From TrEMBL:
One of its GO terms (biological process) is DNA-templated transcription initiation. It comes from Nonomuraea aridisoli. The lineage of its organism: Bacteria, Bacillati, Actinomycetota, Actinomycetes, Streptosporangiales. Residues 198-298 form the DUF6596 domain. This is RNA polymerase subunit sigma-24. The keyword Transmembrane helix does not apply. Belongs to the sigma-70 factor family. ECF subfamily. It comes from the Bacteria.
């Protein structure tokens, strides 16, 4: 199409600048975690590492449009950031002395070799994973710090994720960094005997990010695809760094098998589409196949793990042509295994729903009623919703309407509320 005569003339500098900006963004997304981890490992301070990482990116935005993107952009950023850090430490000798002490302690704890030459950018993100997810930090701080440091979200973006004011989130992130500094939490990968105790915390942080992305706790949208995809990206990194850990494979498999259904969960008007109504032709088959392969790795070579079993359940859903032909007996059996690993009421709730689909709604409702006294299920929207659905299927309209009202009061996102309002109107219309 011809450009209208009123359009301003094209600035010949715009395309190189835009291209450089795009290149910086791509490099930043791919290399930021590695760069930050290497700098923290060298200088022992998250704040300093973040500041000089940002300065290196800013320098790239100035120089690359003129000189071009270097052959090794990650190494260029590392060299620039390291020089900025050294300059800053030279100006503040007391700060440098404190960091040097912390670094000696960290080196002694980790037994790590010194940093490589300028052309190398060591991949030390695994150490950063365990630092951000250290059990000494409160659970919400671990998620916030992981999003900030490993996912590369800005503080305002992390605040929006938690639906908190930016100032509140900034204080939370600062609190986590101060805890790491004051408690002298070592920047290292746990020893082999510590890994079984520490790895679940790292996996839980990543899964918490995914859960908020796949099923947002509140807001106008059902899904936050950016968060779900960021969690998958982090799990892929962890899988590369810990290829022999079966639960890492299980977590990645679980997220892929669930995320494969993302396009079918939302209708054309943004409405919620339940599993039994989804167009399975819209499911991402490539992602499902990758998840199925990872399930095999997760369940081979030892007793089944928490994420591996959940991934196997997700795989059975994804393999079925529809809800009616889903292997519900096998899913119930896998929930029995899962309950032996983690006897939580939330897992018992999911098992009750599977029993309802295997044996009928009356059997499932009886199991749900047995869970009615569980404190963790009070105010838990999926419990109220599941109970309402089973009551409706049993023809107990007034009770179903009451349960739908309860679920509606608890629902966090507008698509969920719209779905529940629709169900409630159906109950009321049926008398």
């Amino acid at each position: 199409m011809d450009r209208p005569a009123t359009d301003p003339p094209t600035d010949p500098r715009a395309e190189p600048v835009a291209a450089a900006g795009s290149s910086v963004e791509a490099v930043f997304r791919e290399e930021r975690g590695r760069l930050l981890a290497a700098l923290v490992r060298r200088f022992g301070d998250l704040d300093l590492a973040e500041e000089v990482t940002s300065e290196a990116i800013e320098a790239a935005l100035v120089h690359w449009p003129v000189s071009g993107v270097p052959p090794k952009p990650g190494a260029w950023l590392m060299t620039t950031a390291r020089r900025r850090a050294v300059d800053r430490l030279r100006r503040d000798r007391a700060y440098a002395a404190r960091l040097a002490l912390l670094q000696v302690e960290a080196d002694r704890a980790a037994g790590a070799p010194p940093a490589g030459p300028d052309g190398e950018l060591p991949d030390e993100r695994l150490q950063l994973f365990f630092t951000c997810a250290h059990p000494a930090l409160p659970a919400e701080d671990r998620v916030a710090l992981t999003l900030r440091c490993l996912a590369g979200l800005t503080t305002p973006e992390v605040a929006r994720t938690f639906l908190l004011p930016q100032a509140t989130m900034a204080k939370r992130i600062v609190r986590a960094k101060n805890k790491i500094r004051q408690a002298r939490i070592p920047f290292r990968v746990p020893d082999a005997h510590e890994l079984p105790e520490r790895l679940p915390g790292v996996l839980q942080v990543i899964y918490s990010i995914f859960t908020e992305g796949y099923a947002a706790s509140s807001g106008p949208d059902l899904q936050r695809l950016d968060l779900a995809e960021e969690a998958i990206r982090l799990a892929r990194i962890l899988r590369r760094l810990l290829p022999g850990e079966r639960e890492v494979a299980g977590l990645l498999a679980l997220m892929l098998l669930i995320h494969a259904r993302r396009a079918a969960r939302i209708g054309p008007g943004g409405e919620l589409v339940l599993l039994d109504e989804q167009d399975r032709g819209r499911w991402d088959r490539t992602m499902i196949e990758e998840g199925q392969t990872l399930v095999v790795a997760a369940l081979t070579g030892g007793p089944p793990g928490f994420y591996g079993v959940q991934a196997a359940i997700a795989a059975l859903h994804d393999e079925a042509a529809d809800v009616a032909t889903t292997d519900w007996p096998q899913i119930v059996a896998l929930y029995d295994v899962l309950l032996s690993i983690d006897p939580s009421p939330v897992i018992a709730l999911n098992r009750a729903v599977a029993v309802a689909l295997r044996d009928g709604p009356e059997q499932g409702l009886a199991l749900l009623d047995e869970l009615a006294g569980e404190p963790r299920l009070r105010g838990y929207p999926p419990y109220a919703t599941a109970r309402a659905e089973l009551l409706w299927r049993l023809g107990r309209g007034p009770e179903a309407a009451a349960a739908y009202r309860e679920a509606l009061a608890l629902a966090g996102t507008e698509p969920e509320r719209a779905h529940l309002r629709r169900r409630l109107r159906e109950c009321e219309a049926a008398g």
